């Protein structure tokens, strides 16, 4: 009987923890909203100011838990990256994940399609866990820019 009570208590405790860990991750709706806020910010403030704000980890509008903004041009050059500033200025058109998927090419193809936006699935280092996790990036095209944010699954 004690074992059953302990198991029930453990199950209850774990169920309380589950929502907290889910809350530590951004949602698909939040990634879309962050991307759209980033596009509006670029339009209102210009590229230079926007890219600096996207790279600023203190800016909670563009950094929320595991969500952040990234921007590429249609040639594959990283113009801003919310987590990895070393990527900025580099042509990453040939960048692949561990399974060989072209990440930036997929962003460009998706955002250059008829809808001008969409989701791309790939694997990427999670800034919170430091492990390589499945990720879905949401991208939208703004002129010659590909603006996005993504969720870890």
UniProtKB/TrEMBL annotation:
List the subcellular locations: Cell membrane
Does Transmembrane helix appear among the keywords? yes
Q: Which UniProt keywords apply?
A: Cell membrane, Membrane, Signal, Transmembrane, Transmembrane helix
Q: GO cellular-component terms in the record?
A: plasma membrane
Topology in the lipid bilayer is annotated as: Multi-pass membrane protein
Q: Which residues form the Single Cache domain?
A: 20-105
* Signal sequence residues: 1-22
Protein name (record): Single Cache domain 2-containing protein
Q: Which organism is it from?
A: Pseudoduganella namucuonensis
């Amino acid at each position: 009987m004690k074992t059953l009570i302990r198991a029930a208590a453990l199950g209850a405790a774990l169920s309380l923890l589950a929502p907290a860990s889910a809350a530590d991750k951004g949602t698909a709706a939040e990634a879309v909203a962050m991307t759209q806020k980033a596009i509006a910010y670029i339009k209102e403030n210009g590229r230079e100011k926007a890219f600096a704000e996207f790279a600023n980890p203190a800016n909670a509008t563009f950094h929320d838990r595991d969500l952040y903004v990234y921007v590429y041009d249609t040639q594959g050059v990283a113009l801003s990256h919310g987590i990895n500033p070393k990527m900025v200025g580099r042509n990453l058109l040939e960048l692949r994940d561990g399974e060989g998927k072209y990440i930036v090419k997929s962003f460009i193809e998706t955002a250059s399609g008829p809808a001008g936006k969409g989701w791309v699935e790939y694997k990427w280092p999670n800034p919170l866990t430091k492990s390589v996790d499945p990720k879905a990036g949401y991208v939208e095209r703004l002129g010659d820019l590909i603006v996005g944010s993504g969720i870890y699954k």
